[in-house]
């Protein structure tokens, strides 16, 4: 649907034409700036009284108060905001009239002059000259403020929450608290990278387009390379490529990047998401548990300055030793069922249905157990908790628990009632690995997302010898939710996927 200007946009388009008629380029080629608004204020406050501080600042026009011959305005840039003081005697009649008649909130301007402090104490810029940098045709939505219980509460500029995500650019421009979320997200990624680097991990990049998909239980996106005449898949995990690098001689590797899974969208799922995966030779899942606790606490401290984090009204203590409990014990406690009393799929399915759980037809034994975890246990895991020893039949890449043929050394960790990450003592026996892959082919139907193709090249790599190792994967988006107290993944994704809006 083509753009049809509304009445306000029509007015601004008329101003745009008038600016051009009087010889003002509304989108000039060059810009001059000596200070950000924050730097300008800091420079003034650092000088002795009476010493002139001349600056040129740029930013979006946020407010205007027309006092006749004098105009007070505020501009904002990424560093903050600054009051402008424009007087007709200083800038001239023509410039003064142009500002009053043809400049709108949302326009970007450049202003130069001397810094001073007003009688009310606000550090401001006494403008000697200004110029338009970019004319905004569409007015930004305006945030609402309301007094509640003696406090000023600021409400989003958008009445339609979904429209915020569709127009993230306007959301960011209108809501500084949203910009703060994504600054924290960026600091989070930097902190995780710094932690990995400081512990002698090598950051690498593995293929996003892969001839086979694997390393996770998920349905892939499929594409096609025309010249190679080859079907390719967007990766669902980095795992199998990262472990190939252990075969090649690297002992600690990690990657931060995008994974793609053709699955449902929810408050904690998006078709593409940011993942951290690492693999460390000569570690087992106990080593990975210890490392995970330290890494998450470090990230929280780096982003928020504390390891005590408020999420969804609850205080999470990320810096304390985390609870560690087996999957069997956790399900016994919260679901009041011992799945080991039901050694086959049919009996367990009946028991699950009896307590009101989900038991999809044909779901294998291990998948039923995983369902019990999701339905009955996960919502209760508010404080950081490690659930360990998962069923073997849903964990084809993990080593078995010694003396226990039904469970493997795998753990997932949960915070705030959400699963945050997944880790194994990685299987490095190529014969056992092939048998696991083949058993999955028989266990799951052709269209089941758990039924990954057998990666012969990965098995070949394993046959050259893979060191014992521990591996880990974590969704960075969910950790960003926790550290910004966001209720949905969409709040921490700049451009989340949405359904097409029906016209």
Give a quick set of tags describing it.
503 residues; OB fold (Dihydrolipoamide Acetyltransferase, E2P); BirA Bifunctional Protein, domain 2; five-stranded mixed beta barrel; 15 helices; 28% strand; elongated
Q: Please report the distance between the alpha carbons of the first and last residues.
A: 9 Å
Could you list the spans in which at least 5 consecutive residues all have pLDDT below 50?
none
Number of domains: 3
Tell me, briefly, the overall form: elongated
Explain this structure to me?
- The chain is an alpha+beta fold.
- The protein has three domains: 7-134, Nucleic acid-binding proteins (OB fold (Dihydrolipoamide Acetyltransferase, E2P), Beta Barrel); 144-174, no CATH class; 177-322 and 383-492, Bira Bifunctional Protein, Domain 2 (BirA Bifunctional Protein, domain 2, 2-Layer Sandwich), CATH 3.30.930.10.
- Helices cover 33% and strands 28% of the residues.
- It contains 15 helices and 21 strands.
- It has helices at residues 7-21, 37-45, 88-91, 93-102, 161-166, 168-174, 176-198, 239-247, 285-304, 327-334, 345-354, 365-377, 430-443, 456-463, 476-484; strands spanning 54-66, 70-77, 80-87, 108-117, 123-134, 144-148, 151-155, 202-203, 209-210, 222-225, 230-234, 252-260, 272-281, 308-311, 314-317, 323-326, 385-391, 400-401, 404-415, 418-426, 469-475.
- Strands 8, 12, 13, 16, 17, 18, 19, 20 and 21 form a nine-stranded mixed beta sheet that branches.
- The chain is elongated.
Q: Secondary-structure map with pairings?
A:
Elements: H1 7-21, H2 37-45, E1 54-66, E2 70-77, E3 80-87, H3 88-91, H4 93-102, E4 108-117, E5 123-134, E6 144-148, E7 151-155, H5 161-166, H6 168-174, H7 176-198, E8 202-203, E9 209-210, E10 222-225, E11 230-234, H8 239-247, E12 252-260, E13 272-281, H9 285-304, E14 308-311, E15 314-317, E16 323-326, H10 327-334, H11 345-354, H12 365-377, E17 385-391, E18 400-401, E19 404-415, E20 418-426, H13 430-443, H14 456-463, E21 469-475, H15 476-484
Parallel strand pairs: 3-5, 8-12, 16-17
Antiparallel strand pairs: 1-2, 1-4, 2-3, 4-5, 6-7, 9-11, 10-11, 12-13, 13-21, 14-15, 17-19, 18-19, 19-20, 20-21
Helix pairs in contact: 6-7, 7-9, 7-15, 10-12, 11-12, 13-14
